[in-house]
Amino acid sequence: MDRPLPEFYTGSPVEDADLRFREAFIEEVRESLLSRHVLLTAPRRTGKTSVMNYICSNPGSGTLAIAVNVQDLEHPADFFQSLFDALHDAYPDFVRDTLAKGWDLLKKPLAHVKDFGIGEFKLSLRDSDPNWEKNWRQHGSRFLQQVREVDVSILLVIDELPDMCINIQRKDEELLRTFLAWWRSQRQSPTPSKDNIRWLVGGSVNLKGTLDRMGFVDLINDFEDMTLPILTRDEVMQFVHDMLAGREVVFEAEVPARLAEQLGRPIPLFMQMATQSLYRRWKRRIAQKTEVDPLGTDDVDEVIHELVRESGARDKFQHFYTRIRNYYPEPQRSAAYALLSMISRRSGPAGRAALYSEFVRVTEQQQSNEKEYELKRVFNELLLHLENDFYVVEIDEGGYDFSSGILKAWWAKFYAN
Ligand SMILES: Nc1ncnc2c1ncn2[C@@H]1O[C@H](COP(=O)(O)OP(=O)(O)OP(=O)(O)O)[C@@H](O)[C@H]1O
Ligand SMILES: [Mg+2]
Questions:
Q1: pLDDT per residue over 4-15, tens digit each?
Q2: Are 25 and 161 found together in one domain?
Q3: Which residues surround ligand 2, an ion (CB under 5 A)?
Q4: Same domain, yes or no: 401 and 342
Q5: How many structural domains compose the chain?
Q6: Of all atoms in ligand 1, which is nearest to the CA of residue 8?
Q7: How wide is the angle at C-alpha 193 spanned by C-alphas 187 and 196, nearest 5°?
Q8: Does residue 317 belong to any structural domain of this protein?
């Protein structure tokens, strides 16, 4: 490799210089952004934020770009305040000399910054209109209008949008509808190809599925939907090879393939964790002896086995369990747990018919008189969610298995009964 060896990343987004395997996809996103707004979808822990951060910090000349994580925001007013704050953080001169021109809302915060420092901007922005929550639409429209009058392109990268939608909806469903409808109309006129504003939106929860359940999916159907590709087996093997060989680990030729096989459909985070564990195993070994055997396939198997049991790794897996509780409504929540437990107990895949019986058993406990066609609809939707969210994959005709072998083993250990 012609660059320094990347660190192991076990949770945080991968930094630009270390990001691999995404060049072609990043180019595709950039190309789409020339004429469309883009919605980036992919399951958890697969590298969305890393890709969005990369695009944000390399937006092309003449483009200002900011990225905002909106996971904890609960109101459109928070959304705009965060956007303005991020813009001010990254481009204070642009905000002061251009964006704020003739716009009173930003005057006071900017004066405050002059007196008390940059950290004061957001706080003071919040106070600059006592009715922010009522006036969010006016401020949002004014913002876009101000930007459209200047001769720069702006890329607004919004991470974890589905979470914000869910937060808003929990408090006020009508507000969510109003916000999405307002935003959509802003994305439509002018048409993106004539606009100097672009939105790149992503999130770990299935946004379409989430909004579909609320009946709002047509409010985001103008985005170009782009799916982050799954790492190929060759890429996984390349990764394992380079990360180990670059650290002077000696290993048998079958090691990368064995790890790829053990990971199943790879979740990049697990790939990183397992490779790091292999490296640590090697280091421990050479610390103890001067002559050591190369790492072999049984080391791979043991590392996977340990990862499932290790307490540090547990939080990372736990999250896959918890998010079902947070995002799947009943009766699908209980049924999701029951089905995943059932699959995890099997050595191979579970048949659709067996899954359906289990589903009926669980949901009948809760809703004994639901009509069968309704149950089937909910059942199909649930399998689709579990597939979209990467938990399971359909193997051949009608059989389902965990998509990640390592997650399956973990599930079996802690949640199978
Ligand atoms: N290109 C890559 N190569 C190797 N590992 C990667 C790559 N992209 C992501 N990862 C792994 O995935 C982890 C999560 O990355 P990132 O935060 O970008 O994903 P995400 O999809 O945004 O996650 P979340 O669903 O939590 O928001 C990283 O810590 C790293 O272990
Ligand atoms: Mg992310």
A1: 789 999 989 999
A2: yes
A3: 48-49
A4: yes
A5: 3
A6: 31
A7: 70
A8: no
